[in-house]
Amino acid sequence: REDIEMSRYTMCALMLGAAVALAVTGGADAACMSQKDNDDFFAGLAGAPIPLANSCCQMDVCGIPCPAAHPKPASGFGVGIGIMIAFFCAIGLGAFYFVGGKAENFFVAGRSLPLFVVTLTLASQSIDSNALLGNADLSYKYHFYDGAVLPIGLGLSLILNGIFLAHKVNEELVLTLPDIYGKKYGKVVEICTSICTCCSFLCLLAGNLVGMSVILAYIFDISEVGAVFLSGIICLAYTACGGLFSVAYTDVVQAAIGMIGCLSVAYWLINNAKEEAPPPSIGMPKAPGYTTVSGTVANQDIGFYMYPDDATAAMYDAVDCEFNAGAKCYNTAKWCPTDDNCVADNGAYPIGDKRIFENQMTDPAALTPFPNAIFFNWATIFVLGFGNLAALDFQARCMAAKTPLQARIGCILGGLLTFFVGIPFAYLGAITRFYYGPDSKYAEFEADTCSTILDLPSCAAWKPDPQAFIKLLTTEPPAFLGGWGLLGIVAASMSTSDGAILALGTVFSHNVVRHFVEFDDKKLLMISRIATVPFAFIAMAIASAYKSDHPSGATGYLLIVAFDIVLAGCIVPLFAAFYWPFGKPSPSAALFAVVGGTLLRVILEFSLPKDGWLLLPYNKKEFYDYGTPVKDQGTFYPTWFDVPDDEKWTPSSCPQTKFEDYTGVDSLASPLFSLVLFLLVSGIETVKGSPLLDFGEWSVPYNKKINEDNAEVMTKAPSRA
């Protein structure tokens, strides 16, 4: 329970408790309220334009104390993180000497990675800042499964890859994933999938740069945009030098240090936090001197807040309400005897919160009175589980494994590690809400919002703190443990960012440029290293646009976008390359599947209704957006305030619109359309007896030569795994 010291001024403002202006006419320049007359009404009560000096809108309109200032992090956090970043960079730069001018070493580490390295480097790519920081942020802003779906989807993808693809990818002896498309379908399909995967990994890289930059910006007190570019340049430097050797062996160190740190701080918080989730709200007292409209002087020992049930009332030794017979109210005499000894909150959780609602993934109304993004959460698991099968970094590590069996086992173990490390972070969302949620002293609200289901005439929309989880780690656990957890998230961001940078450079140079300009392995290395630079800076620009205050949570949002791109058109041809049961798969069918699925995804992105809330328009009262307060017929208070009935607000004064966002529908429809196109074109060609499209040699499957200096095509016996 937070102790909130309530000054006399704060107490007086409580009599405004979520009040709404009396007029309807609007004005454009209101400071706190969108309608000028509303703003003027509260300014008249305050005696000056609002927000007042040293005050805020939620205080001047709703009587909710302004968010408390949070202490700056100790300097030791910055020193420790800075030293470890330098250490990671030194390992990566040292790998430059292992490349030896060979493309195979730069791209796939000489196909020499043992099982433990494959497992840890795959887990490091999966357990990124999305699976950790993005997960914790989303579970804090919304609820458990809104964050947990990220590590669940990522871990599932590794397990599926281990079952179906990893061993086959390793047997192909290629340098990049698009090489497989070229080997099975020809150059046109290879180039198309290369473009799709590069777009995908720009978003993946951007999401991880956001995650790393949020921590660096907070710890070092720099701008988040500056921290984005600092993060990108750090990862770019050692990745361009050592290629997959740099990435793989820094991943091992980052995994060993980062995963242990993340697990340690997660389990410490789960076992030691004051509360596992926000408890039922204690409420607030009446304003001193509160007098009803009829002139009755209120009893100051009885608070404004009415408890929703007998159990909550008993928990806080409630007293009989003054104006609502049979109800129980806040015990002012016990909880707020003086201004400097007052325990109160904002009444945000009448019956309390829970760490997890078991039916969140089965019932759209599981989070009542809040909406539940149940469809989008299931779509996220599907997008990550299957879209990640076309992840350049995952498959590069499968190619680099010593044997197909090690690639297969490494994926499955990496997926299980992702579950083990990532899912506990979703439990931390409820803990973070206890310390930084709407009932905490740090709570911030949008004054000009109302909600019928929340019974709030104003200040209905809570504004989550995008740095809340980082602040939690720097204040609640022991400093060493909190710093270790932050370092673990930074390490996770670096491990995925370097892999994404490498993948972008290698695919662009090897699978796009090389088809138009001939060059040998040494020039390939040079071009690959040069190509990483513009891609890295493009990703930095994307990350700067989607900073941590993005409403969907930039880290998690960009992760889903990344693999939505490749799921649309690239997954069906990838499975067909290895599992098509009717001879060799058709290059024309693959091209139609890639282009058609991707094109449909783009069309649906701009044609489907999307309001940004990621919520389907269920016909339930929870699925309505916050409204803007309008004239309230002279009634000011929520119905859960202990005031006469004629002073309570009328919910009809809050017009609200239904959420309408079909995000996820496009994600599922596009790969299905891709599959239909692949089957349809394959069937037409079978009947026709000839290819539907013919681009000459560009439509002919071919084998790439791995080493241009000896012009040998590498082959390998099939694995027994």
SSE blueprint:
Blueprint: H1 8-14, H2 36-46, H3 57-62, H4 75-94, H5 96-99, H6 103-108, H7 115-126, H8 130-141, H9 144-164, H10 166-171, H11 177-185, H12 187-220, H13 224-272, E1 302-306, H14 310-315, E2 319-320, E3 328-331, H15 332-335, H16 374-387, H17 392-400, H18 404-436, E4 445-446, E5 461-462, H19 468-475, H20 479-512, H21 521-545, H22 554-569, H23 571-579, H24 587-607, H25 665-688
Antiparallel strand pairs: 1-3, 2-3, 4-5
Helix pairs in contact: 4-13, 4-20, 7-13, 7-17, 7-18, 7-20, 8-9, 8-18, 8-22, 9-16, 9-18, 11-12, 12-13, 12-20, 12-21, 12-22, 12-24, 13-18, 13-20, 13-21, 16-22, 17-18, 19-20, 20-21, 22-24, 22-25, 24-25
What features would you highlight for this structure?
721 residues, mainly alpha, 3-stranded antiparallel sheet, two-stranded antiparallel sheet, 55% helix, disordered N terminus, disordered C terminus
